[in-house]
Design brief:
Blueprint (H helix, E strand, L loop, with lengths): L16 E4 L8 H10 L4 E6 L11 H13 L3 E7 L13 H21 L3 E4 L10 H21 L3 E4 L13 H11 L4 E6 H6 L4 H8 L3 E5 L18 H10 L5 E3 L6 H5 L1 H16 L4
Parallel strand pairs: 1-2, 1-8, 2-3, 3-4, 4-5, 5-6, 6-7, 7-8
Helix pairs in contact: 3-4, 4-5, 5-7
Length: 289
């Protein structure tokens, strides 16, 4: 395993690391919130998955309850990330009902962002059938993203789009395709996500993302891998510390999230893995004389 230390230390406030519930689906939602407050998180990326924060089941009363839970702990929602890879959610599907239901889900998620005063809605491009003309699937994704981003803009919500690994999508797998998709959508409130595992799986670097997307990079999923996986810092071999330093030198001033999927030991006891990531981040960005 690599040391995951940056070549040059940088000073980044740890407040720029969001708390997240990606590994908490087997724990009550209030336990997740209590852990985030105890770990010093103030802003959160909320993963919309049952039973934790299932968007289709969140009526107005439930959203008000979540607002109170956040407020009681002095927490804020920053990003809402609907489950959209494993669940039957696909905005590029050629099946009309599936695509329409998927778009409706994201419109509802934009409303949830608005109600929670979360400024960011997290999107992925979906996928087409493997045996169809991918240009048709690309166009369906562009149209759906445009509709979602346009609706989110009316609510004062920005969107960010993440490329996926090839096993997850046949449309957007690298920073060049991500830039083409964002350009084709043409929405001023649509930015880019840099996911360190997706970046490594595509054989890309932070410099590739900066060159192709520059200031469009508005959110970062900071995850370890070999090179894939959703691993805690140090459980893989990616140079996360170097990635952070390179992003900072490139002028990135947004937020980072540790997207630790709740499989394996992380789900059994999620707090220690996240705490380990936070401690590693602190060590990586601590100024050295």
């Amino acid at each position: 395993m690599g040391t995951n230390q940056p070549e040059h230390s940088v000073a980044i406030p740890t407040e720029r690391v969001l708390g997240s519930n990606f590994s908490y689906q087997h724990r009550p939602f209030d336990v997740f919130l209590d852990d985030m407050a105890a770990l010093g998180r103030r802003k959160l990326e909320l993963w919309g998955i049952a039973p934790q924060f299932h968007i289709p089941q969140l009526d107005n009363a439930a959203i008000r309850a979540v607002r109170r839970q956040l407020s009681d702990r002095q927490l804020e929602a920053h990003c809402v990330t609907v489950e959209q890879v494993m669940y039957p959610v696909n905005i590029a599907s050629p099946v009309d009902w599936l695509r329409n239901d998927s778009i409706a889900l994201f419109r509802r998620a934009a409303q949830v962002c608005n109600e929670l005063q979360a400024p960011l809605l997290f999107l992925t491009p979906g996928r087409g059938f493997e045996d169809e003309d991918l240009q048709r699937a690309w166009r369906r994704s562009v149209d759906a993203l445009g509709e979602i981003a346009s609706y989110a803009a009316t609510l004062g919500v920005d969107c960010v789009l993440e490329p996926l690994q090839r096993v997850e999508s046949n449309l957007v797998n690298d920073s060049q395709a991500l830039r083409r998709m964002i350009d084709d959508v043409g929405a001023s409130n649509l930015g880019a996500v840099l996911d360190t595992v997706a970046m490594a799986a595509a054989g890309e670097t932070v410099q590739d993302y900066v060159r192709n997307l520059d200031t469009l990079i508005r959110h970062v999923h900071l995850i370890d891998g070999c090179p894939t996986g959703h691993l805690a810092w140090g459980d893989g071999d990616l140079p996360l510390g170097t990635y952070v330093a390179e992003l900072e030198r490139a002028g990135y001033d947004g937020y980072f999230t540790f997207e630790l999927f709740g499989d394996g030991t992380y789900a059994f006891d999620p707090r220690p893995a996240l705490e380990r990531c936070l401690n590693a981040f602190d060590r990586a960005v601590e100024p050295r004389t």
